[in-house]
């Protein structure tokens, strides 16, 4: 089951408050009492006011409420100092292709992916390309597993020259939660389990973006096990 | 005040449960009762079990608790079906450079940034390069403002050929929350407010990563207003 099937509209606010343990529980309980469900909570900034109190800014995305209901939270949770509507990250940054690997390969793969995402975004899509260059089996396997924890991640592109062992197991775990994995043609066993194997890194980046774009006729499921 | 000054260690778990409104409030209240503070909550997957019940998987990052305390939550919140430790995203993906722009510029800027991040990550850092290609003043201004909502974002690189108007105001708002902005040399007023202006896109990507790397001797504050 692909992740793309599960999206519901959310509304988002930024909240400012004193960084005390009770505030987030009060906010979340109030959202639930209105019938909303918290989908994302992200601590985006911490600072101190003139009196030296530790303040925190939190971005909150909620499903099932109207924006006015969510911003009304400021009147119901006394600990809040500020509350202003913001756009949910889904509306701004859209779907994410994650690119993991190293060296010349990852730089060329991301070049292809960003160029292709630019073309689809010109036609009204929102596709981000998020990259981390890494080396080492342990680092790479941990990063592949962690892609499952990234909201809005729709596909993973592995861009390196040798990947196998625990990385291959991590790829299979990621596929099991519905995230397709594209791999460069390389040494190691990752290519044996990848949904799609592509030799040229620029084309691999391009195809990976095509696979998550609604404006492209390209389906990973129909490419399963193919090599280019 | 830079964002880098405010980091405290977190522990992370993935939770599985039936997607009902009361569960997240119960989890968050329990975390608070133990003395922990939720820093990130991210809904990463939704699916249905054999009985057709809607299930959800949530990644939770908490400050102030030991991992065993956090995983012990499974015994205290009956609605949870599963709870397993995971690595916090900060440990895996580290600091983020955000690149926003379009066309040939963004593809070259991200090439420089990813190549430079690869070199720093080889020396033990964790630096991600996250990109969205966009056009239009409204889209770009919204994306610049939303960078403030991205956890672990440490700098923004604007890679285009003309940016001004509301984008310039958005840049100033972002700088006010401690995120430096690097701009390509381009048409429009963004270059007048940017922390650093660089003509070559590959070098701009490289310098942007140097500015957030602990392994580089490069300080945005000392470059304020300079053009290269």
Q: Features of this protein?
A:
homodimer, 228 residues, alpha/beta, six-stranded parallel beta sheet, four-stranded antiparallel beta sheet, 9 helices, 10 strands, 30% strand
Task: Write up this protein.
With 228 residues, chain A is of the alpha/beta class. Chain A has helices at 23-33, 67-71, 89-93, 103-122, 137-146, 166-176, 190-193, 201-212, 220-223, and strands at 10-18, 37-48, 54-63, 80-86, 95-101, 127-133, 153-159, 181-184, 196-198, 226-227. Chain A has a 6-stranded parallel β-sheet with strand order 6-5-7-8-9-10, with helices on both faces. The first copy, chain A, has a 4-stranded antiparallel β-sheet with strand order 2-3-1-4. In chain A, a hairpin with a 5-residue loop joins strand 2 and strand 3. At the A-B interface, helix 1, strand 2, helix 3, helix 4 and strand 6 of A face helix 1, strand 2, helix 3, helix 4 and strand 6 of B.
Brief write-up:
The structure is a homodimer of 228-residue chains. Chain A is α/β, with parallel strands linked by helices.
Biggest interface pair, counts: A-B, 69 and 69 residues
* Count of helix runs of chain A: 9
Which spans of chain A of ≥5 residues are poorly predicted at pLDDT below 50? none
Would you count the extended β strands of chain A for me? 10
């Amino acid at each position: 089951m692909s992740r793309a099937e599960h999206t519901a509209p959310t509304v988002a606010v930024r909240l400012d408050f004193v960084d005390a343990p009770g505030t987030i529980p009060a906010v979340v309980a109030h959202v639930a009492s209105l019938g909303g469900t918290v989908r994302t909570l992200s601590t985006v900034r911490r600072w101190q006011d003139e009196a030296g109190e530790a303040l925190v800014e939190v971005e909150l995305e909620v499903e099932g409420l109207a924006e006015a209901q969510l911003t009304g939270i400021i009147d119901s949770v006394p600990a809040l100092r500020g509350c202003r509507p913001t756009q949910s990250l889904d509306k701004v940054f859209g779907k994410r292709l994650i690119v993991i690997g190293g060296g010349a390969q990852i730089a060329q793969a991301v070049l292809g992916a960003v160029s292709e995402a630019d073309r689809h975004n010109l036609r009204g899509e929102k596709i981000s390309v998020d990259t981390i260059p890494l080396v080492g089996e342990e680092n790479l396997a941990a990063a592949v597993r962690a892609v499952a924890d990234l909201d809005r991640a729709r596909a993973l592109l592995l861009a390196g020259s040798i990947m196998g062992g625990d990385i291959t197991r991590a790829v299979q775990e990621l596929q099991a939660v519905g995230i397709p994995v594209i791999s460069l043609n390389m040494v190691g066993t990752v290519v044996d389990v990848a949904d799609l194997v592509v030799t040229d890194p620029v084309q691999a980046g391009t195809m990976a973006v095509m696979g998550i774009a609604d404006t492209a006729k390209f389906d990973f499921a129909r490419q399963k096990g193919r090599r280019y």
